[in-house]
Every structure is written in structure tokens, then in C-alpha cells.
Automatic annotation (TrEMBL):
Official protein name in the record: DUF4246 domain-containing protein
Record's compositionally biased regions (Basic and acidic residues): 134-148, 156-165
Parts forming coiled coils: none
Domain DUF4246: 1-112, 165-388
InterPro entries: DUF4246 (IPR025340), DUF4246_C (IPR049192)
Biased composition annotated in UniProt, kind: Acidic residues: 166-183, 192-206
Region (Disordered): 114-209
């Protein structure tokens, strides 16, 4: 066991030296962190690029509902979402960044879905595989600098997200062979009388172990997503601001990103700035017992205390297992597939007499195999984006106009409805997960 741990650390060290990536919490899936994959220059440009979104009148700032004015939304994907029966779509035209305002108010209303589907979801943007993303973001305001920065950031980590999915598939196949592997281990254990033979066999076992199959060859800079021409990404920019009057952040709730109709398969987080806050961590957990331990482990009737100690579980408790947490310091990027529940852990001001903040860019990757309606099809919905009254009048006279773009108040109501729907979804998922319990019963 110790030798395998050492070998894993050696392989991770080699991977880091060759790719600047560190896989952590190798579970049924893998979380990857990096402090070097994004350059300091790019992080600095990101800080500068978001200034146009931060330096606005206080009355126009979008403090997240229910956050006690601690979470400031700069770009929020649930604001001006796709609303079936309300939002317009251009079914036969592609909307680019340079001409997006010309499409304001145009299109046909997307029909309402059947009762089995939701009526509201966020709108991702497309990113070209060649690095030429042209779609606008249906957020608070237009920012060409932020558009460019988001595109540059995406070019680096896409391969990590794709490789995580591939690794997960390999792990699933490996799990089918776990029982055979355990028998092989028992047979090898009888050879301990001959130290030299043991060393040789252990080395072979470690090298061939399915749990050490990640190398720099798995990291790609092109050709990911089956050479897809573009990927769809949901963009979010948010700051957490603390003050002497509000010196602490209580943390977030356990959740998995998005809803089924959004098809989010992976997340990339970029912590690009913070000041005067204590250590902040992102925690992960996941259902366990993929190996069906209760049925496969050998133990005397009712004598499962040793199993509880070894695996840190309790008979009769749910199978949700805290996997660990990752420090979210400035300059760090974190990537993970949408298989983990995760939550922001609490933090507070380092110096309670001064304000502090933490800033983050989040990119949610839509499953490339299931593309969804994006900003390349949905015209800008913000009424205040109309260039002039003349443009508004011209749009109203256009025969393709079915409805006018949204006012901010209406968009916020749709966001509240979407957030309420997600809250119910997450709670239902939580309830179902907690129904699955460890049961070391008679066997």
C-alpha cells in the first residue's frame, strides 16, 4: 500500500513537471488544479477587463438575491435567460459579436415546451475550436475585452475537462475487474517469504495498476471533443465582498451545476483576485459504494466495526462521502467533471477592520455531444441594449418581430423563477442521495 502511494506521488510529480497540472482527489472522477496553466499576464488582463463591469453606479450593481449584498454578479447566466414562449430565436441565422445589436428584437418566439420540460434555462455561448469565438454574452452588458479574455482562458483548459471524462470511463471499466484484482493481490501476498521476488512483483503490480494511468500523453492541446468545430460554454463572473459590518461568508450549499436541459458536463474555475480574506476552499463530495462493499466484503455476522474504521463510514448512514477540498488561492485554476457535489466553504476577513473580496471566473462546459440553443441563435434580449429609439422603432416595424426585448425587472423575475426551480431540484437530489444507506446486514 505504501509503495503504491509513493509511486502515485512520483507519477503525479512527473505529470506536473510536464504539464503544470496536478490531479487531486482521484475518486470515481478526478479534480485537477493548476497554478501555472494560466499566465500572470492573462490574469492581470482579466482584472483589467472586468473593470468596466465593476465601475458602475451603485444603483445598477446586481447583488445576488439572498446573499445579503455580499455576492456581486458581473455576468450572471441566469439573468436574461432563454424563456420558452417569451424569448426570440433566429432559426436560420448565426449571430456574431460585431453585429449582435442589429438583431435586438428580431426573430420568432421559441414555442413553449411540453409539461415534462422546464420553461427557462441559461443561454451558453459558442467557442470556436480555432480560438475565434464570435458570440456575445447575454449578460449585464457587452464587453469586448472580457469576451477576448474568456476566449483566451478557454484555449488552455479544454483538454483537461475532456480528459477527465475519458479517465472516468476508464475507471468504470476498471471497476469491473476489481474482484479479479483482489484475488491477484491475495495470491501475491503468499510470496512474502522471498523479498527479492516480492519487490519484483510489487514493481510490476504498481506499474500495471489501473489507478496510475494518467500521463502527459493524456493531455491534449487540440483535437479534443472528437475534433468538434466549437464548444458551448456558460460564462459567470462574480465577486464576494466582505466589510467590517459584514465580515464573513457562510459558504454555499452542496450542488451539482445546472439542470438536465443545460447538459453541463464540466466546470473550470479561475480565481483571479482576492484581498484581505482568510483561507478559502472548495469542497467536494460524491456517493460512494460503487464496489458494493456490503455484499463483497467478508466479515463475521454483525462484526462490521473494523469496516467502518477502515473506510470511514457508518452502518445505517448515507453513502455520501466527503472527498476533500482544494485551496482556492489567487492565480489558481480548478477543473472537474460535473459528477461531484461541491460547495464553497466559509471564510471571513483577515483584518476585520478593513474590507476584503474574492473574484472568480467560472466556465461551465456544455456536453459537446448534446448541443443546446446558444447566443449564436438567440438575439440580445436586453431592451437597454437598443442603440437608439430609431433602432427600436425600426425593429418594431420589422415583420419578424414577435415581442420586444426584456426590461431588467422582468429579467430578474425570470431569474428568481429559475433559481427557485433549481433550489427544488437540488433539494430533491439531496433527498434521494441520502436515501441510499450503508447496510451491513445478515449475509
Amino acid at each position: 500500500m505504501a509503495e503504491m502511494c509513493i509511486q502515485e506521488l512520483r507519477k503525479k510529480a512527473t505529470l506536473y513537471e510536464e504539464t503544470d497540472l496536478v490531479p487531486v482527489m482521484d475518486y470515481s472522477a478526478c479534480v485537477i488544479k493548476s497554478d501555472k496553466v494560466i499566465s500572470d499576464d492573462l490574469f492581470q488582463r482579466l482584472k483589467t477587463g472586468v473593470k468596466s463591469l465593476e465601475d458602475i453606479p451603485e444603483i445598477d450593481k446586481d447583488w445576488h438575491p439572498g446573499s445579503d449584498s455580499k455576492v456581486l454578479n458581473l455576468v450572471h447566466p441566469s439573468l436574461f435567460p432563454l424563456v420558452y414562449g417569451r424569448s426570440c430565436i433566429m432559426p436560420h441565422e448565426r449571430i456574431g459579436l460585431s453585429e449582435c445589436l442589429d438583431f435586438c428584437g428580431r426573430g420568432v418566439i421559441i414555442p413553449e415546451p411540453d409539461e415534462s420540460d422546464t420553461g427557462i434555462n441559461v443561454v451558453p455561448k459558442n467557442e470556436e475550436g480555432s480560438g475565434g469565438g464570435e458570440e456575445y454574452k447575454d449578460g449585464r452588458d457587452q464587453s469586448e475585452e472580457l469576451e477576448h479574455l474568456a476566449q483566451l482562458v478557454i484555449e488552455e483548459p479544454d483538454h483537461n475537462e475532456g480528459d477527465n471524462v475519458e479517465k472516468d470511463d476508464e475507471d468504470d471499466e476498471d471497476d469491473e475487474d476489481d474482484e479479479d484484482d483482489s484475488w491477484d493481490y491475495q495470491n501475491r501476498s503468499y510470496a512474502y517469504d522471498d523479498d527479492s521476488e516480492v519487490d519484483s512483483e510489487e514493481d510490476e503490480t504498481i506499474e500495471s495498476s489501473p489507478y496510475f494511468n494518467v500521463s502527459s500523453k493524456d493531455v491534449k492541446s487540440s483535437g479534443f471533443f472528437s475534433n468538434a468545430a466549437r464548444a458551448q460554454v456558460i460564462v459567470k463572473l462574480a465577486n464576494i465582498h466582505l466589510t467590517p459590518d459584514k465580515p464573513s461568508y457562510d459558504g454555499g450549499s452542496w450542488h451539482i451545476e445546472g439542470q438536465l436541459n443545460e447538459h453541463i458536463c464540466a466546470t473550470a474555475l479561475f480565481y483571479y483576485d482576492s484581498s484581505n480574506i482568510t483561507e478559502s476552499r472548495l469542497a467536494f463530495r460524491s456517493p460512494c459504494d460503487q464496489e458494493n462493499l456490503a455484499m463483497r466484503l467478508g466479515y463475521r455476522q454483525g462484526d462490521y466495526e473494523s469496516i467502518e474504521k477502515v473506510f470511514a463510514i457508518r452502518n445505517g448512514s448515507d453513502t455520501l462521502q466527503d472527498v476533500g477540498s482544494v485551496l482556492t488561492r489567487p492565480g489558481r485554476a480548478i477543473f472537474f467533471p460535473n459528477l461531484f457535489q461541491h460547495r464553497v466553504q466559509p471564510f471571513k476577513l483577515s483584518d476585520p477592520t478593513k474590507p476584503g473580496y474574492r473574484k472568480i471566473l467560472a466556465l461551465f462546459l456544455v456536453d459537446p455531444a448534446i448541443p443546446v440553443i446558444s447566443t449564436s441563435n438567440v438575439p440580445p434580449q436586453q431592451k437597454h441594449w437598443f442603440k437608439s429609439q430609431d433602432q427600436s422603432q425600426a425593429a418594431t416595424d420589422d415583420t419578424r418581430i414577435i415581442s420586444n426585448p426584456m426590461e431588467m425587472d422582468e429579467a430578474k423575475k425570470f431569474r428568481e423563477a429559475l433559481m427557485a426551480e433549481r433550489t427544488v431540484l437540488q433539494q430533491n437530489a439531496e433527498d434521494e442521495l441520502k436515501k441510499v444507506e450503508w447496510s451491513f446486514c445478515e449475509h
